Amino acid sequence: MSDQFDVIVIGGGPAGYHAAIRAAQLGLKTACIDAWAGKDGKQALGGTCLNVGCIPSKALLDSSRQFWNLTHGFEVHGISAGNPKIDVAVMVGRKEKIVKQFTGGVAMLFKANKIATYFGTGKLLKNRQVEVTAADGGKQMLRATNVVLATGSVPIELPFAKFDGKYIIDNAGALELSAVPRRLGVIGAGVIGLELGSVWKRLGSEVTILEALPDFLAAADADIAKAAAREFAKQGLNIEMGAKLSKAEVKGNEVHLTYTGKDGEKKIVVDKLLVAVGRRAYTTGALGEGTDVKLDERGRVIVDEHCWTGVEGVWAVGDCVRGPMLAHKGFEEGIAVAELIAGKAGHVDYDIIPWVIYTEPEIAWAGKTEAQVKAEGIPYKTGSFPFAAVGRAVAMNEPAGLVKVIAHAETDRLLGVHMVGANVSELIAEAVVAMAFKGSAEDLARIIHAHPTLSEAVHEAAMSVDKRAIHRAN
User: Fold this and answer.
1) At what angle do helices 14-25 and 88-112 cross, to 10 degrees?
2) Is 105 flagged in the annotation as binding?
3) 310 among the known binding-site residues?
4) What does 225-270 look like in DSSP terms, one character per residue?
5) CA-CA-CA-CA torsion for 18, 23, 24, 25, nearest 10 degrees?
6) Active-site residue 451, yes or no?
7) Tens digit of pLDDT per residue, the chain (474 long)?
8) Residue 196 within any structural domain of the chain
9) Is residue 168 a known part of a binding site?
10) Is 188 annotated as belonging to a binding site?
């Protein structure tokens, strides 16, 4: 096989494999280099998302939700089950099968699109040469007209709570627990901390989440964050804000934590500690001497709005560049760059990237929060509607949460849509479509929504912007 390509993608995660497939679809001779190896040593495409992130976490979230419903939610339906148990090994095994199905699926797509796959570590050198180092240390040199850096990200490790893989774990470790820990500590009340904390809480663990920031889910709209916090408290998730961890010591089979809270120094003991304080761009070793590719102070590749590095033929996408570390953001950047390389009009609208947290209830939003709109001095109006007034939600025994719509006070254009409730990960797509077409609150309000559906909450929230919601007093 020739070592000269039109496009070489370094990284086979969400951003990388989308870039590779789209480039190949457009007739470009494409290669992809990826270093991922599972705990069994077998190499697999898909990066963090497919192997230890998005897909496996959703598998465990679904399994734990089924168990929670069995033990907490079915009685209202007249369904009872005696002495229910969870077999963690079977649950984790199901997750592994799903992971293999999807990583194998990416490999099949690569084969179908005639993408050359190199398993190993890729390093960009001068003049768009790429050095591939295999797991056994062997090296191979490739060349390309265009190189796309898609090296992804890794968990941030705290200097006083280093991962040991047994007691102090990262997200991958939290997906591999062989038994339900009696006491689980979580550092960080972000997406990963809330989702994985929810998994093990539903299965019976006593979960304590410590968050250093003073405000819960500061990135979300305040009304949505408040409603979500209320539901998590009902579920027994203990979330302490303004809690700064200073020490984590493994003693025996326990982890002893020291942190500073609102009332001074505190200590707690847990059986496992999940550190989920965020992720950092993984660019270590990705750039050789003289490439002229620049990194910022956080180790991210510096790119323009088109994901171009400023160096001829060198691009970067996904978690290793600016912007939110979201798989679907990486998808779109990878596709856009492939299309730009092929001379087409690739584009990503960063203003309406949807965010989703797959807790119970789910949290989703797109666009600006009310606080952002207010800070920018934009005249605005809002409308909201609770799921408790939606027939389908009540029939499903999922009445928690609400939808909030923010629109420009003068033009009525949608500025942001925010949700917390059942299946809002799916409902947010409607808002993104409306915003992509520069839609207004009235547009959402005029569109017929099927009855009974959860989407009626979006409809009524949009109507509420102009104080004309039907099923609540305005």
Assistant:
1) 30
2) no
3) no
4) HHHHHHHHHHHT-EEEET-EEEEEEEETTEEEEEEEETTEEEEEEE
5) 90
6) yes
7) 458 999 999 999 999 999 999 999 999 999 999 999 877 778 999 999 999 999 999 999 999 999 999 998 899 999 988 889 999 999 999 999 999 999 999 999 999 999 999 999 999 999 999 999 999 999 999 999 999 999 999 999 999 999 999 999 999 999 999 999 999 999 999 999 999 999 999 999 999 999 999 999 999 999 999 999 999 999 999 999 999 999 999 999 999 999 999 889 999 999 999 999 999 999 999 999 999 999 999 999 999 999 999 999 999 999 999 999 999 999 999 999 999 999 999 999 999 999 999 999 999 999 999 999 999 999 999 999 999 999 999 999 999 999 999 999 999 999 999 999 999 999 999 999 999 999 999 999 999 999 999 999 999 999 999 999 999 877
8) yes
9) no
10) yes
Residue 434: give its domain's CATH number.
3.30.390.30
The answer to whether residue 57 sits within a structural domain is yes
Range of the domain at 376: 352-464
Residues 267 and 224 in one domain: yes
User: Do the domain assignments include residue 472?
Assistant: no
344 and 424 part of one domain? no
Residues 427 and 383 in one domain: yes
β-pairing, 380-386 vs 402-408, is antiparallel
Residues 290, 408 within the same domain: no
Residue 246 lies in a domain: yes
Catalytic entry in 72, 306, 347, 451: 451
Two tokens, residue 25: 């679809």
379 preceded by cis ω (within 30°)? no
